[in-house]
Structures are given as structure tokens and as C-alpha cells.
Amino acid sequence: MTMLLNSDRTDAELFQVLATIGDDEPTRERVYELLVQRYGWLVRWAVNRYAGRGEQAEELEQVGYLGLVEAIQRFDAERGVDFVTYARPTVLGEIRRHFRDGRRWVRLPRKIQELKMQIKGATEELSQETGHLPSSAELAVRLDTSEDLVNEALGADDAFTPLSLDAPIGDDEEGTTHMDAMGGDDAKLDDVVDTESLWPLLEKLPEREQEMVLLRFYGNKTQSDIADRLGISQMHVSRLLSQTLATLRKDLVT
């Protein structure tokens, strides 16, 4: 099945194409490309919500795009739900799962946590008895476990001990510390705080108002574009946006 597809096609037309062609059709890849380009702003919006949490934005964008593709795959236009309304929780959920899985990966196994506590007690006892710090072999004998497990537990201590900001960086002859390498105050920090404060307020808005704000300020859509998308007049969009922004400003300062 061959057809001309370009960015002028509406969502309804593109999803109709997906519903009528096979998985191995070359056209299918083109439809996905158009939809991913069209809704890339939604991924960037989702990534912005999780900025500053220890992950590179580029990596989170990759995760977010996986969520977007999944939303495109599962979306059923016949149910009458707007695609943004459907895709937003899917993209956010993929990013949340990324953080959740990452935290699970770095968490110490329960067995190692318990062994660490036992090693602490055994170290104190053996130190008093022998007058020196016990070796891993001595600890293994005292705790009736393998030396490998003792070493693993001892190594876990180093892996999860926070690094002092006063510690020198590598072999720097000038004695540069991690604190020296940190940047100064960011002049835009207040904007970040306001942005972070905005998310819970935005999510309390009705779905239509949420979508309008997202499209206008994250999707870079004009009021006319939004009006066409929502099936209302541009004047109505202007009035609703003004009311919504006034509400958000008021809630931010209270």
C-alpha cells in the first residue's frame, strides 16, 4: 500500500492509516516518524518535570520517546479520547519506571545489608580480642560465612559512601576539591523553582485547560492552532488561556 504522507495530515488521518495497514508496510514507519516529530514536545515537557534528579536529559528523552512510541502503538482513535490525553501518562509512566528500576538496581540486597551489620559487630569483638583489625578471613570464620561474601559486603560500604566535597579531585597537584569544581548560584534558579511548583497546579486543571497550556508553552502552538485542534474559536482559546494563567499565577503566590 503506497500513499503520500506529509506533516499536513491530521492525527485522525494518520491513526486511520495505522489501523488499515499491516505491520510490515513501509508506510507504517513514515506514520510513526510523523507522529513522533509532532509530539516530541510532549516528551521534552515530561523530561523537564524530572530535571535535576541525577539523570542526563538526553537519556530521559530516549526513555520518554519509548513511551511515546508505545502510546502511538496502543492508541485507539475510535474511543474518542484525545491523543495527548492518552499519551501524557504513558510517557510520564515510562520515565517514572526508569527511575524506579534504577533505584532498585542500586539498592543493596537484603542479605548483604544484614551481613554488613553482623560484620560491624564482629569487627568490634575481634578487635578487642586480638588487638588488631580483623581480616576478611577472620570475619568469615567468626560469622560462619564465605570470605567472598564478607568482601562483597565490605566493598558495598565503599560503593555507597558519599564522597566528601572537600576531597581532592584525582591527582590534581593544585589540590582542587570537588567543592571548587561546583558552580556558583544560578541566576535562573528562581525560575526553576517556579516551574517545579507549577506542575501540581497544572495537573489540577481540567483536561482541556491542561492541554491548552501544554500546547501553547511546550508545543509552541499558536492560539489559532489550538483552536483548530480543540474545535473552538480562537477568541475562546484566548479567553480560556488568560483565565487559566491568571489562576496559575494566583495559586503560585499563595
Task: Supply the key terms.
3 domains, Four Helix Bundle (Hemerythrin (Met), subunit A), 254 residues, Arc Repressor Mutant, subunit A, mainly alpha, 68% helix
Furnish the topology, listing elements before pairings.
Layout: H1 11-20, H2 26-38, H3 40-49, H4 57-74, H5 83-106, H6 110-130, H7 136-143, H8 147-159, H9 178-181, H10 189-202, H11 207-217, H12 223-230, H13 234-252
Helix pairs in contact: 1-2, 3-4, 3-5, 4-5, 6-7, 6-8, 7-8, 12-13
Molecular structure report:
The protein has 13 helices and no strands. It is mainly alpha-helical. It folds into three domains: about 100 residues, Four Helix Bundle (Hemerythrin (Met), subunit A), CATH 1.20.120; about 70 residues, Arc Repressor Mutant, subunit A; about 50 residues, Arc Repressor Mutant, subunit A, CATH 1.10.10. Helix 4 crosses helix 5. The chain is elongated and about 85 Å long. About 10% of the residues have low confidence.
Produce a short descriptive summary.
With 254 residues, the protein is mainly alpha-helical.
The overall strand count is 0
- CATH topology (level 3) name of the largest domain: Four Helix Bundle (Hemerythrin (Met), subunit A)
Task: Please estimate the helix content.
Answer: 55-70%
Order of helices and strands: HHHHHHHHHHHHH
Mean pLDDT: 76
Contiguous helical run count: 13
Largest β sheet strand count, sense and barrel closure:
none
Task: Briefly note the structural class of the backbone.
Answer: mainly alpha
Report how far the terminal alpha carbons are from each other: 57 Å
- Using the 3D structure, state the CATH architecture of the largest domain: Up-down Bundle
CATH hierarchy class name of the largest domain:
Mainly Alpha
Rg, Cα atoms, Å: 27 Å
Question: Could you say which overall geometry the principal axes of the C-alpha atoms support?
Answer: elongated
| Beta-strand content | under 5%
Low-pLDDT stretches are 157-165, 178-194
How many separate domains? 3
